[in-house]
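Hello,

Our lab assistant flagged a job as stuck in the queue for most of the afternoon. It eventually completed. Since we weren't sure the result was trustworthy after the delay, we are filing this so someone can double-check. Below is the sequence as submitted and the structure that was eventually returned. Let us know if re-running is recommended.
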Amino acid sequence: MRYLRKGQKLAKAKVLFLCTANSCRSQMAEGLLRRLAADRFEVTSAGTNPARLNPEAVEAMREIGVDISKHCPKSVEEFLGRHFDYVITVCDQARQACPLFPAAVSTLHWNLEDPAAARGSPEQRKAVFRRIRDEIAMHIKNFLTKCPNA
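-- returned structure --
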C-alpha cells in the first residue's frame, strides 16, 4: 500500500494485460478495466506475438458500450524494463512465453479460452466472444474487490 504526505496525490496503479496476439482477450480486459476503474489504474495490454485487432472482439465490446476500435496491438517487448503494479496474463501461452517483469509488484494469471479460435456460424462465434467478454468482466470485478488500489 502506498502512503502519501499531506497534499500528495496517489499515483495510479499500473496494469499490463498480456496474451499471445493482443487482438482479443487482453484488449477486452484493457477496455473493461478502463471502463470500470480508469480513475484508479493506468492500464495497457500487449502480446507475445501481436496480430491485428479482432473485429469480433471490437463488436462484442461495442455491445456493452465499450469502444476498443482504436486500440492497437502492441508487443510485450515495448514494455520490458517498465514498472507495473500488476501483470496479468490471460492465456497459458502468454504465461509460458512471457518474459519476467522483475519490477512487477504482483503477477496474476487468468487462463481464458481464445475466442478467435471459435468455430461455427457467425452467431456461434459471437456467443463465444460474449462469453469470454463476460468472463473477463467477472475476473476484473473480482480483481477490483481484492485490489488495495481499487
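-- support follow-up --
The delay was a queue issue, not a problem with the job. The result is valid. Confidence is low (pLDDT under 50) at residues 1-5. The chain has four helices and four strands.
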